[in-house]
Description:
It catalyses: a quinone + NADH + 5 H(+)(in) = a quinol + NAD(+) + 4 H(+)(out). Its EC number is 7.1.1.-. By secondary structure, this protein is α+β, with helices and mostly antiparallel strands. It contains 15 helices and eight strands. Helix 3 (72-87) runs antiparallel to helix 4 (93-121), helix 4 (93-121) runs antiparallel to helix 14 and helix 6 (169-191) runs antiparallel to helix 11 (255-279).
Amino acid sequence: MTFKTEHYVINIGPQHPSTHGVFRLRLTLDGEVIVDVEPIFGYLHRGMEKLAEGRNYTKNIPLTDRLDYLASMINNQGYCMAVEDLLKIEVPERAQYIRVIMAELQRIGAHLAGIGFFLNDIGAFMTPLLYMFREREKIVELFDMVCGQRLNYNYMRFGGVAMDLPDEFLPALKKLLNELPGFINEYDQLITTNEIVLVRSKGVGILPREMAVNTSAAGPVLRGSGVKWDLRKNRPYSIYDRFEFDIPVGEHGDTYDRYLVRMEEMRQSVRILKQAAAQIPEGEYMGKVSKLIRPPAGETYTAVEGAKGELGFYIIADGSENPYRWHVRAPSLINLTALREMLIGWKVADLMAIFGSIDIVMGEVDR
């Protein structure tokens, strides 16, 4: 016997614990099967890109902290590099090493949060998340040591960083780097072969390689689909060409592969950090930069490899103290482009696993 059913529409979000902020999904369902999806953003109304045009270049550094607020150090780095390109500023070598150390610590911290919240989304209530926040807390303590902040750091400056590393920083960093591989292996044993994780993520929410490229996906979402693309390797910036590390990629482009890529990227970040901590030279932490930042008329697009993918800043300068235009290529927004195609055909129960595997922060989606 066949039953005639009618499609019906439900809303998930914008106030929902697993929508990672004010994100709304309007689902058309046939029973529990998703037949259509309309993602709806726009609840934050931050207007950050317009606000930046009314502030001078230096005062816009704190705005970058509020983009992906789980990766503020990398946001600082990308924006400062864009303005440095306009000003043709040379950054001292010690400052370059400090920036790389901060960026890679931030990448590990962001992936710890991303994996922890993803597991929470699929029902592993709190345990893996709290394990991962244990190590994230140690990274936050290092950030607190250098700039006095634990979330929005506002640490980097045009030409370098705001303050040099305190004497106790490198010993604390090296101690953490000796501990992290063991902790990452602990997460691996807890999660990677867990039968519930395998059933909820393996073969679920496949993003084919071609679609990942065509939708401009970036970061672990792109690499999970088998595309070996990482700006630190493919278009090296700062001093990344001095370090040995690998680019992990997935095979199937499913939810499980995106998890595996983030797990392996933490190991690669530890490799980079160990090399940077061993190589960091003495010297200036700040280059010679005028207190009045007024780039000549021109434009730039400068991108770094953020925790969630390519984070780019497009700036048009008109010779004044404020940018004429200020635009952010935010990976969280771009990675949502393929969400509809990833969800159609799956059940409502699979939705949060697939959505969580993209790892978005709404601060850089609705900016």
